[in-house]
Amino acid sequence: MADFQSIPVSFEELPCQKIVTLVDQDFSIELDWNSVGEFCTLSISDLFGNLLFAGKLVYGGNAFPFDIEGIPFEAALVPIDLADLYSNSFGSAITKENLGISVQLYLGKRFE
User: Fold this and answer.
1) pTM across the whole model
2) Do 30 and 20 meet the contact criterion of CB atoms below 8 Å apart?
3) What are residue 85's phi and psi, to 5 degrees?
4) What is the 3-class SS of the chain, one letter each residue?
5) Which residue, of 14, 51, 89, 105, has the fewest CB within 10 Å?
6) Residue 92 — left, alpha, or beta (φ > 0 → left; ψ -120 to 50 → alpha)?
């Protein structure tokens, strides 16, 4: 069974920066809210400040959908409401109202 841990974050604290461990390596992530498009963004850097990836977080999708130089290939960061895994419906978006409440950002490995 996959072992996931969540990154504690709420809409009220955005923009925020956190140190996370992805497959035994530490990275700095910055989360922000795009108020024009109404979506959450993610930037990930190594601990030397080198930007490795930036993009929009998509509900239920791995933030790292392809091989990104500097980020372990098996790393996963998935924004999801775990209740959706056990229901017949599936949420469709990360919103101001659900970020950090029902929708959490889960870290894990993509092949577990």
Assistant:
1) 0.86
2) no
3) -70, -20
4) CCCCEEECCCHHHCCEEEEEEECCEEEEEEEEEECCCCEEEEEEECCCCCEEEEEECCCCCCCCCCCCCCCCCCEEEEEECHHHHHCCCCCCCCCCCCECCCEEEEEEECCC
5) 89
6) alpha
- CA dist 18 and 69 (Å) reads 20
Question: Alpha helix (H) ranges present in the chain?
Answer: none
6: tokens are 């969540």
pLDDT in tens, the chain (112 residues): 455 689 999 999 999 999 999 989 999 999 999 999 999 999 999 999 999 999 999 999 999 988 899 998 999 999 998 888 787 777 778 999 999 999 999 998 876 5
- Contact between 33 and 44 under an 8 Å Cβ cutoff? The reply is no
